[in-house]
Amino acid sequence: MRSIKKGDNAMLLTTIFYETDNFCKQFEKEYKKFLIKNGVQKRIKSSRLSMSEVITICIFFHFSGYKNFKQYYINYVCKHLSVEFPNLVSYNRIVELKQKVALPIAVFAQLNEGACTGKTLIDSAKLEVSHSR
Q1: Residue 3: closest CA among 58, 63, 75
Q2: Is 125 exposed, middle or buried (CB count within 10 Å of its CB: 0-12, 13-18, 19+)?
Q3: Close Cβ partners of 23 (under 8 Å, ≥ 6 residues apart)
Q4: Which candidate, 47, 45, 57, 46, places its Cα nearest to that of 21?
Q5: Which of 61, 80, 119, 133 has its CA 20 to 30 A from that of 43?
């Protein structure tokens, strides 16, 4: 199911994590300064996975060959990347964390790729219906 070679996986994953971790350290500093400067009091709840780990998992999905994030997370991340990510969370929790890192991912993508191309990727999973009309 994966589109990249196994030997390349570790190097690619390490590279993605290194880049995102450096970005997240700077982003979190600047974001806290922004909140303080604008008088916004926002509680930042800690998680078992760091922001950079969540972003790495999200970015690595696009190199995995999987068609939807749920299958990727359950069948690949939880089974094959548990050593790299020892504090993995449930699928429902990772979906919540993905929403929380949407802004940092957008900023990271903008800084690393330039202008938006106008193309959008939509991740979908099969939805069961009780009655099809």
Answers
A1: 63
A2: exposed
A3: 52, 104, 108, 111
A4: 57
A5: 61
Contacts of 51 (CB under 8 A, 6+ apart): 24, 27, 28, 100, 101, 104
- 28-45 pLDDT, tens digit per residue, is 888 888 877 887 776 666
Angle (CA) 27 32 34, round 5°: 95
- Dihedral angle computed from the Cα positions of residues 73, 76, 80 and 86, in that order, rounded to the nearest 10 degrees: 0
How far apart CA 27 and CA 35 sit, in angstroms, is: 12
For 98, residues 6+ apart whose C-beta sits below 8 A from its C-beta are 54, 58, 69
- Comparison of pLDDT for 123 and 38, the residue scoring more: 38
DSSP sequence for 66-99: -SSHHHHIIIIIHHHSTTT-TT---HHHHHHHHH
